[in-house]
Amino acid sequence: MSTILKANNLTKIFSLGGLLSRTKITAVDHVSFTVESSEIFTLAGESGCGKSTTARMILGFEIPTSGELHYLDQNIQSVKDKKAWFKEVQAVFQNPFESFNPLRKVESYFFETVNNFHIEKNEKRAEQLIEEKLQAVGLTYHEIAGKYPGELSGGQLQRSSIARSLLTNPSLLIADEPVSMVDASLRMSIVNLFREMRDSFGVSVIYITHDLATAYYISDRIAIMFRGNIVETGSVEEVLGNPKHPYTKLLIESIPQPDPHQQPKTLIKFLEEKEEYLRKGCKFSGRCPEVMDICKKITPKDVLIDGVMVKCHLFKTNTGKSEE
Amino acid sequence: MNCVINVEQLQAFYVLEAQGKRKIIKAVNNVTLSIPENEIYGIAGESGCGKTTLLKALFASIDPPLQLFGGKVNYRINGKDLNALSLSEKEKRELRWTYISYIPQGSMSVFNPVKKLKRTYLNFLESHIRGKAHRDLLSLAHQHLEELGLSPQILGAYPHQLSGGMRQRIAIALSTLLKPKIILADEPTTALDVVAQRAVLQLMRDVQQELQNTIVLVTHDMGIQANIASRMAIMYAGKIVEEGPTEEVFIKPLHPYTQYLIQSLPRIGDKTTRKSVPGSPPSLLDPPLGCPFHPRCPQVFDRCIKETPILDQCNPNHKVACWLRRD
Amino acid sequence: MGILKDLFKDYRFAVGFILLVFLFFLVLASFFSPYDAIKWLQVPRDKPPSWFHILGTNSKGQDVFWEATFSIRNSLIIALIAGLISRLIAVLVGFVAGYKGGISDRILMGLTDGLLVIPLFLILVLVAMLLKEAMTLINTGFLLAFFGWAWDARTIRSQVLSLREREFTQTSILSGNGTLSLVTKEYLPLTIPLIFSTLINNIAWAIGMEIVLAILGLVPLAIPTLGTTLQWAITYQAILLGHWWWILTPVVLTILLLVALYWFSVSVSEYLDPRIRIQRIGVK
After folding, report:
1. Across the interface, do B163 and A210 touch by the CB < 8 Å criterion?
2. A100, C282: Cβ pair inside 8 Å?
3. Distance from CA of A98 to the nearest CA of C (A)
4. A208 to chain B, closest Cα gap in Å
5. Are the C-beta atoms of residues A243 and A252 closer than 8 Å to each other?
6. How many CA atoms, within 13 angstroms, populate the side-chain half-sphere of residue A50?
7. Which of the residues A185, A191, A262 would you substitute to probe the B interface, choosing the one with the greatest number of B C-beta atoms within 10 Å?
8. pLDDT the model gives residue A320
9. B172: Cβ–Cβ under 8 A, 6 or more apart, which residues?
10. Rounded to whole angstroms, how far apart are CA atoms C148 and C89?
11. Among A113, A193, A124, CA closest to A156
């Protein structure tokens, strides 16, 4: 297992407002993580936590304010050639109905991808390659030939999106909430596809979601994000099975389990999250049930404990030292 | 079991005309349902199965392009049955919010974005309670909010100043102000994060406990259904395919669709492979003949293709529409 | 020609189309006119409509009918030049500002806003006065084009801004498309109805403006256009003298032309509207 992607202190600050009053929002705050080859890595968190912005920075759609991204030991920001980058990294997005232009046939994107990246010169072979990738996602060319996006279902569109992204044989696929808009009864089949891609093609997947149940189901490792910070990173069994950070614990407790025998959860006091983005110290201190004085003043450092990286003042590493 | 709404063979279809061609979408296709009182009743199904249309019909809000093609929606008021669909607009208005409330998907649509919440609440109360001063109405609103564990100071804010979760809870508070006997909630927690969702569900439970009324909760999220609905119905392609106590439906689902649905749900702690329902959801424009699920059913046989199964009693209190259970 | 059949179901298109065809034939007829367009005293003056002169003759000694054919032709030439050139500028500016954003956007929109704020009418009159000698048909067209692109550039920019945020933009970029491909293959099909309707509106506006300029005497009055014809009729007191055929002709023709353009534009825009096109895809 080798590291293919390394994010180091990635930060993105947006400034909003007019000429006279500008507020800065730190959407992504010194985020560091690695993605190994042939693994499914989940970035989990609620909407607005910065996971999509992180994905956009990896894809090159946003420029980081500071921090570094390394791909196979090469610093990405120095790569001028976006097209070469998209040969290695591809993406699928949340809304299958918006992923394709409603006035264009879906297959035109496939042929474009093949032509633009010079994957196959021969038209016959291009068709074969497209058929191959479609079958890998459970579709046939016959099913989508000549069809516009409005004539296909959400499931078919999302699979087409995935098939298109596989055409360049990428080593990394970023999937941003790929099943949240897909019918519940079809979700698993699409989520299973990511597992297959990891196992059969060796593709690594960065799976971005707020649904911890599917995250548990397919990921190898997971990072929990809160208001721009990664608060806990580790193997998915450890992080979701034995959560350490109070926010992770809160998230897991709040998931409604599909089991009517589970007792209704203990009542929680729900406070409004005011200006959590601009908070000094730990951003979760306003709501944390285990908050201490230090949490409100000093930002916690990352601490390695039991193989899990946690950003919380409650913990010190097993070795007794705090690590950056 | 006392019922507060009785739906009889309801057929509500959307009629669309485009470029001279007519399309009929059979959103609610022959639904018969009895919704009990003093219960949280869940209606589950995926997008496009007709559940939102069913809710609209329950609220007697059948407006073009939706048209009534048959059936009744009976409200049981004071022991008598009243067909909501045959009422005049004035009569409907009198019932709405006082007898039956509707919380639509997306709380933003409930509030006027340029008015403070206080104003919306006051307008609402004024149109239903006559002859009371603003001060009295406001204290009514404050009292209600406090009962639900919400801070009355929130009324001084504009809708956009609150988070989605808070807005949704204020919307629920508004719809329960006049203590309705029935509350219809359409996907009240989509677009909310799990923590906000938990608070909203908690609130709904509290409201139901206090008013001892019926909440009809429509959501595709089976986790929520398991958590809060005591009785539920599963909807597929405009028809009800299974109905019964939530516990039974989860532990011993009778309809193949329900079985698939429940088995495919991922749970934390379990990494075994799960499979989804094969095939894709049917189009309501051209639903399959016979049983609507038969093209995707692994246990399909001859009768399924020709005859549409009726929703019928299988175990006491537990109904299913499937030829497998009819022997 | 299934498309034409579909369009004809809309009465607005039918009427507009027929009117435009009729007016087009008039334009064609102008090339076969037995009379010269500009010379005076070619026929007896101020004669009411008769068999020899279907619409009578005017005070300059010209046949009103044939003068009308020239007027329509010239007015349309001015309007078409104005419309097409201003479209070109509006599309370029709108797309670049909308897609690139940042500094290019700010500069281009500054320019656009500057033009929008200028009291158009006054400047137009000023320029026309200064260039009076050089005002040919084509120059008038260019002048109107220069002042006609700003508003629509903003409208097109707004549409491009919203298209940029849609997910298929990202899919297209991930499929390896460069900016030019992206804009032509993805955005143009979705903005064509907007561009088309603004074209027609612009043409209608240009026709109106030309009339205004003519009445103010800022267009070479020798050349027959709808505006100049009207101007001459007014100068020669046509209403007072009861020469209704001379003054009514340009008025009625202008009204017919503008109504035809409007209905044509509205019905074709609706037909091309992506949302309706998408609905049509399903119905097939």
Report:
1. no
2. no
3. 6
4. 14
5. yes
6. 26
7. A185
8. 45
9. B103, B148, B183, B185, B188, B200, B203, B204, B207
10. 9
11. A193
User: Which residues lie across from B33 on neighbouring strands?
Assistant: B7
**C-alpha distance from residue A82 to each of A168, A170, A247, B85, C206 (Å):** 14, 14, 37, 60, 45
Please give the model's pTM, rounded to 2 decimal places: 0.82
Cα–Cα distance, B249 to B318 (Å, whole number): 8
Second-level CATH architecture of C2-283: Orthogonal Bundle (1.10)
Q: What angle do CA C27, C28, C32 make, to 5 degrees?
A: 115
**In 3D, which of C48, C47, C43 has the Cα closest to residue C61?**
C43
What pLDDT sits at residue B108? 66
Residue in C170, C175, C278 closest to A102 by CB: C278
pLDDT higher than 80, residue A111: yes
Three-state SS string over B126-166 comes to HHHCCCCCHHHHHHHHHHHHHHCCCCHHHHHCCHHHCCHHH
C6/B23 Cβ within 8 A: no
How far is residue A103's CA from residue C193's CA, in Å, rounded to a whole number?
13
pLDDT tens for residues B198-244?
888 888 888 898 889 999 999 988 888 998 999 999 999 999 999 99
C-alpha distances out from residue A67 to A9, A44, A96, A314, Å: 5, 21, 32, 27
Q: Does A94 touch chain C (CB under 8 A)?
A: yes
Q: Which two tokens stand for residue C182?
A: 């992206």
In A6-140, alpha helices (H): 51-59, 82-88, 106-116, 123-136
Helix (H) or strand (E) holding A305: strand A302-305
Confirm or reject contact between B275 and chain A (CB < 8 A).
Answer: yes
Mean pLDDT of chain A: 85
C110 touches chain A (CB under 8 A): no
| Residue whose token pair is 């006609």 | C148
Q: Which amino acid is at C54?
A: I
* Residue C165 sits at the chain A interface (C-beta within 8 Å): no
The amino acid that residue A239 corresponds to is: V
Chains with ≥3 CB–CB distances under 8 Å to A? B, C
Which structure tokens are listed for B6?
Answer: 């009785």
| 3-state helix/strand/coil string of chain C | CHHHHHHHCCHHHHHHHHHHHHHHHHHHHHCCCCCCCCCCCCCCCCCCCCCCCCCCECCCCCEHHHHHHHHHHHHHHHHHHHHHHHHHHHHHHHHHHHHHCHHHHHHHHHHHHHHHHCCHHHHHHHHHHHCHHHCCHHHHHHHHHHHHCHHHHHHHHHHHHHHHCCHHHHHHHHCCCCHHHHHHHHHHHHHHHHHHHHHHHHHHHHHHHHHHHHHCCCCCCCCCCHHHHHHHHHHCCCCCCCCHHHHHHHHHHHHHHHHHHHHHHHHHHHHHCHHHHHHHHHHC
Question: Could C278 and A148 be called an inter-chain contact, meaning their C-beta atoms sit closer than 8 Å?
Answer: yes
Q: Is there a contact between A237 and A212 (Cβ–Cβ < 8 Å)? A: no
**Residue B83 has which token pair?**
């067909």
The residue among C99, C164, C171 with the most chain A CBs within 10 A of its CB, best to mutate, is: C171
Q: Which residue has the tokens 């019909």?
A: B57
Please give the ipTM for the structure prediction: 0.85
How far apart, in Å, are the Cα atoms of B150 and each of B116, B141, B145, B168, B176? Answer: 16, 11, 5, 12, 13
Bridge partners (DSSP) listed for residue B3: B36
Q: Where are the domains of chain C?
A: 2-283
Write down the pLDDT at residue B134: 85
CB B28 within 8 A of CB B238: yes
Nearest CA in chain B to A210: B193
Cβ-defined contact of A183 to B266 (cutoff 8 Å) = no
The token pair that represents A246 in the structure block: 């109070």
pLDDT given for residue C160 in this prediction: 93
∠ CA A164-A169-A175, nearest 5°, is 55
Residues of chain C whose beta carbon is less than 8 angstroms from a beta carbon of chain B are 6, 9, 276, 279-280, 282-283
